[in-house]
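Subject — a protein and its fold
Encoding — discrete vocabulary of local shapes:
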Amino acid sequence: MQAELSKDGKTIIVSIPMQLRRRGGRTTIIAPEGMEAAPKPPREDGLVKLVVRAHRWLRLLEERKFLSIRELAESEKIDASYVAKILRLTLLAPDIVEAILDNKHPDVLTWRELSRPFPVEWGEQRRLWGIPAPVQPGPH
């Protein structure tokens, strides 16, 4: 970071080296090496909405409020294949869901990535997306 005075001496110009990266329809600022990046701001995250929707839909199906994905899709006025893709989010490892809800998930976890087939085994999910396994509490 560097600061300088403008030619007229009335303005301070601050320059911060950074890169902009576009992921999942959002532009994020990448701080240079050695410079601390600001924490991710809280946001209305579409991925959070999708995870919540997936679990709500699963609950409705389990409670037999709807007898099929097609019936659920019709009630929501959306395509059944989209409902099926969203429902797959209920197969995510609990720690991955928690990271999404806390906005601490890796940038690779976008809807575009999660709408593709992914392994149902939690360890394989973590390997695929480079997420460390949660630390298990040791014996007392």
